Amino acid sequence: MKKASVPCPFCGVGCKLDASSKKPLKEACARAYGVINYFSRNPVPEVLLYEDGLYNPIKLEEAIEIIVEWISKNRTYYIGSAEDTNESAFLLNLLARALGTNDVDHCGRVCHAPSIDAYWDIFGLPTTNFSLDDELNDSEVFIIGSDVAVTYPVFWSKIKREARKIIVIDSWTSFTMVQADEGIIIPPGPGYLALSELLYNYTYRREVPLWVQEWLDADTIEKTIHFWEDARAPVLVHGMGVTHSGYGYSILIRLLQAFLKRGGKIATLRGKVNVQGAGDMGLVPHLRRYFKTIEGIIKSEIPSRAGSDLVTAFKVDYPVYLIQCQNVIASLPNSEEVALKLLRSKVIQLTPKFTESSIFADLIIPTTPLVNSQGTVTSGDGRVTAFEIGENVAFRIYREVLEYFDVHFHDLREVTYTAFEIVPYYRNIDVYKLYNGYDQYIEKPRTWKEVTPPRVEIFHIHRDEGYWFYTTRDPALWTTKGADEILERNSMKKAFYVNPEEFSGCSKIKVCSPYTGVCVSGDVLHTKRVPRNVIVAFFNHVGLKVNSLIPFEPRDVRSGTPIYKSAKVKAFCVS
Prior knowledge:
Blueprint: E1 5-7, E2 16-18, H1 30-33, H2 35-40, E3 48-51, E4 54-57, H3 60-73, E5 76-79, H4 86-98, E6 104-105, H5 113-123, E7 140-144, H6 148-151, H7 153-162, E8 165-170, H8 175-179, E9 182-185, H9 190-203, H10 212-215, H11 218-230, E10 234-238, H12 240-243, H13 248-261, E11 265-266, H14 275-280, H15 295-298, E12 320-324, H16 328-331, H17 335-343, E13 346-351, E14 363-366, E15 374-378, E16 383-388, H18 393-403, H19 412-422, H20 431-434, E17 440-441, E18 467-472, H21 485-488, E19 496-498, E20 508-512, E21 519-526, E22 534-538, E23 567-573
Parallel strand pairs: 5-6, 5-12, 7-8, 7-10, 8-9, 10-11, 12-13, 13-14, 18-22, 19-21
Antiparallel strand pairs: 1-2, 3-4, 3-14, 15-16, 16-17, 18-23, 20-21, 20-23
Helix pairs in contact: 4-18, 4-19, 5-13, 9-11, 9-13
């Protein structure tokens, strides 16, 4: 009998924790050891309804009736969670469509949506030809725009153990680059597009267009080609330096083909514990054709027109927002505009913890932390895990709300069977074995096809004068909801990080976005790890209001992902 376990909720690796003690069963990073402390900080103790200037406790049954009333009478935007299960995601998908809308999305929109779109076009599936069990022996791992030592420490440990050589390409000397064999600094945004164009054309023996030299200097081009020629078995690990560039899809169509043409692997993990599963289960504003079958379940037709994506949802007014486990104030671009939208709307928040977004909530419902819940999740490499620890409150809410609209499920396992039968690349999963402790992989791609890369068009913003604004992750803070108390003591100073040759003598600078109209003042720290003409800030330093400097537009043309790592700003010394 296998020991009961639950996935660590903090990233796409999906390390296993003991179901009772919540301690790691095998190799894990520091985050896993802080699970209990993390979820015990700022918990939502009971259901709260905001009335007459006060939050008053109410029963869950009353809250469900309020949800039904609000979403029945008002246009609602549904924001699902990558921190919950496939079953909760599938039911929220059904709920939105039962109400006649495609206005539903999840946090994958603002991180790796370009990756998923590129995988579909290249592999015919939303996943890659890599599993964490695969060995990287004698491989050259190219880590492009990813601080994997911070975001996926266990995966980084594997890379360090097994890779022949590690080459990191980023827009600053990241925590990963410091530990790598080789490092190359390139400009944000168009720099990554130029890099992908270089590798794609060089691999396919085509002439490299002259525009590449506008963004990559001769030394960078020479070093890149040298490492590429030297690689025997190249492996790509790409991150949000790519997907937050504004050109993520275009870059990946080029990079994927360059690596695959060389017989390489695409070893990228993505986001939170169930960001793969959340998208697979239909938390997107444009459903694939196989979801047509849910019309028989919801007893109505799915609208043919795609809904608004997660960013567009805050460019227009919705009377109601239903938000599960996403701190939208801290994670979306143009955060001051997001706040204004929430102030004008009814906000339903399903969350185990209070967050900055709770300030705007009219109805707050405590949900079950994943480590105490039940259901299935799909990790970043496509591995599906089942667990049954305690009641999944979000699942219960969605199931009971759906009953008001004549959609009925007997229990959680029925939802698992139904969802996995509808999504074709989950049909190979034996659900009975899954719930008996045997993890399984969704269908993995066996072949790939060549795709003509999109035409190159550089955004006007990237030719404007100003500093590149590059957001990254504080190693001690796991999410925009913080960490545990011990690691938070070691967090980076909340400041703007700049090159020593710039802002000399300044202790504080004001950083302004001409595109959002917002200015933020903060301490300045000088470090040689940041190149000239770049300002680095940590996006999980929520108090610095970093995201207020990121505009809604432009975004990735194909995937709608914002330019968190390639915005342009003005900056001035204030003291």
